[in-house]
Inverse folding.
């Protein structure tokens, strides 16, 4: 089985509040939305926010508290870490940990979205190595991008791959 992740969906309490956080904070534009869920097309995966009670019903399991986990978003500099954390807080997020330099290197801070899901905003000196280590192939992206997968999408993926793999 290939190592692949296609969709991440977080259970949320308020769709409008969540959409403001991800739209105004990260600057993401929805590719699909209805009264229960919003999907965003990211770099090779789809990210969804779904009303928690509806998500729990879909999974046929009771809604639970927020588990100890984090999502991460890497940026290009230390300055971008602080700027994005501030922007996310202004868009309804809660700063969990102000940006600082951990002992293992880099620069990071944590912000919770309006439903308490933790996001690490980070910059690392080894980001080029990290990019290469996690870069999906275009064929992987072509098969994992169900939304807007026309010719123009494939051309954008090819261009993105070349940019991603540039030394």
């Amino acid at each position: 089985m290939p190592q692949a992740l296609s969709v991440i969906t977080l259970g949320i309490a308020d769709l409008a509040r969540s959409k403001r956080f991800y739209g105004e904070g990260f600057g993401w534009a929805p590719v699909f939305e209805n009264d229960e869920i919003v999907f965003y097309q990211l770099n090779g995966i789809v990210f969804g926010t779904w009303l928690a009670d509806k998500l729990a019903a879909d999974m046929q399991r009771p809604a639970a508290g927020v588990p100890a986990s984090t999502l991460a978003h890497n940026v290009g500099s230390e300055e971008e870490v602080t700027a994005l954390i501030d922007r996310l807080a202004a868009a309804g997020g809660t700063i969990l940990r102000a940006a600082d330099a951990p002992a293992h290197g880099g620069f990071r801070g944590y912000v919770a979205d309006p439903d308490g899901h933790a996001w690490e905003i980070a910059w690392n000196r080894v980001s080029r190595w990290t990019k290469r280590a996690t870069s999906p192939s275009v064929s992987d992206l072509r098969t994992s991008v169900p939304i807007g997968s026309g010719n123009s999408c494939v051309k954008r993926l090819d261009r993105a791959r070349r940019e991603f793999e540039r030394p």
